[in-house]
Structures are given as C-alpha cells and as structure tokens.
Amino acid sequence: KTAEPLVRVTGLTKQYGDTLAVDGVDLTVRPGEVYGFLGPNGAGKTTTLRILTGLISPTSGTVRVLGGAPGQAQVLARTGSMIESPAFYPYLSGLDNLRLLAEYAAVPRRRIEEVLTLVDLADRAKDRFSTYSLGMKQRLGVAAALLKDPELVILDEPTNGLDPAGMRDMRQLIRELGTEGRTVVLSSHLLGEVQQICDRVGIISAGRMVAEHDVDDLRNDRELVIQARPLDR
Ligand code: ATP
Q1: Residue 105: its pLDDT value, please?
Q2: Nearest-CA residue for atom 4 of ligand 1
Q3: What keywords would UniProt list here (predicted)?
C-alpha cells in the first residue's frame, strides 16, 4: 500500500513529572489497517492513544491524524474512540444512552439502530445499561464510538477484563470493522489477540517502540514470537 498514512507519529514523548511515559515513539497507520499497539501495563499505550485522540498534548514530537492535528474539529468528526471504560447512565437503556450521545453529535436516528446491530446489541437495546455484562458495556462503548461513522476508530484495551465469550465477541466485532474498511488502532497486552485481529503490530515497552511488524511476520518468525511472548499473559 502506498496510500498516505492515516496516523503519522514521529519522536513522540510525554513526560509526567519525573516519569517519561512515552519516550520517542514513531508509528504509522495506513488506511484500512487494523493496527495493534502491544505492550505490558504501564508501557505507554494509553498515553499514546490519548494523545492521538487529542485528550492530552504531547511533550514533544509530531502527531498527524487524518491529515490534521489531534483534537481539531475536522479530525474529531472523523474519529471515534473508546479510551478507558465508557461512562453511560446506568438507569437508562443502551438505546437511550446512545440517543443522548447522538443528539449532541447531530447523528441521524437511523444510525443508532445501525450501530446497535453492528455491535450485536439490538436485542438488548431497551434494557437498562446496568443489566449489561461487561462485554455488552464495552460493545456499547464501541457503538458510541461508531455513531459518527468514523474512518478511524481508536480503542484502548477493548477486551480488558472480559470473560472468554466477551473477548471473542469483541474481537469478532473489531475484525468486522476492519473488513468494513475502517482503520482501527487498538491497544492490547495479549500477543495472541493482536495476532488474531490485527494487520500490523507495534510493540511498546517502557515508553519505547521496540519493534513494528506485519502480523504475518509475527506469526512466522520464531525469534519475533519469542521476543513478544512474555507479554502474552
Ligand atoms: P495500562 O495498560 O496500565 O494503561 P499503558 O501501556 O497504557 O498501561 P500508560 O497508562 O500510558 O501505560 O502509562 C505509562 C506510564 O506513565 C506509567 O508509568 C504511568 O504510571 C505513567 N502515567 C500515566 N498517566 C499519568 C499521569 N496522568 N500522571 C503521572 N503519571 C502517569
């Protein structure tokens, strides 16, 4: 692929007091790719994704998302994200929670039904959010991220804490997003997971990008797999 990258990050750093959370990260995400950001807890994944979504600013480095700076209105309009557990009203239904969000974002009502179907929550849409399993809550978070029909979807540890069935459903959903042609950037601490659902993987450790690979190389190259294996717990 020679298309312009959708995300281009060079020399990214983020300093919190004495902690260098992100230490010179370069990464490129191409259109239509499912990109996995793999690393253990505290490696700097969340910090990087928060910078990509414009929630926080970098200490230094260059970040271009969809041809603009993160947090610019025209970039936000084309990006959907789920960073940490999404906040929904527990006593409202999944549907009503999405209706509220859709109103703020001027999203057509028809789109709400579409995203609920896409995340396989149409049957439970009228049930209170508080009755949902963690997996369903996370999928509603993805539904919210998809309301604006974004080209780029950023998901921070979307399977974290889920039971096996919840993980399976979420992974399948992410693969579907990729098949639909959306560009997805997600973080994970599970090698097996990124092998299953990603096209390309960046391995981050202690704020540094240790390696970046096509997932096929990660499958075939024994050395690489051994290198990445300790992350897979
Ligand atoms: P996790 O999976 O636990 O979220 P992560 O790879 O996403 O891990 P980050 O959350 O980005 O890692 O954290 C990277 C480092 O930066 C950690 O040492 C963390 O303690 C530190 N850190 C993150 N946010 C802050 C903050 N707001 N203030 C101070 N230190 C922070």
Answers
A1: 80
A2: 46
A3: ATP-binding, Nucleotide-binding, Transport
Beta bridge partners of 104: none
Q: How far apart are CA 142 and CA 189, in angstroms?
A: 19
Q: What is the pTM of this model?
A: 0.92
Is a pLDDT exceeding 70 seen at residue 231? no
At 7-54, the pLDDT tens digits run 999 999 999 999 999 999 999 999 999 999 999 999 999 999 999 999
Q: Ligand 1 within 6 A of 16 CB?
A: yes
Q: Are 13 and 20 in contact (CB under 8 A)?
A: yes
Place of tokens 């075939």: 220
Q: Which residue in the block uniquely carries the two structure tokens 């717990």? A: 233
Residue type, 105: A
**14, 15, 16: residue to mutate for ligand 1 pocket, most atoms within 8 A of CB:** 16
Q: Establish whether residue 161 lines the binding site of ligand 1, counting it when its CB lies within 6 angstroms of any ligand atom.
A: no
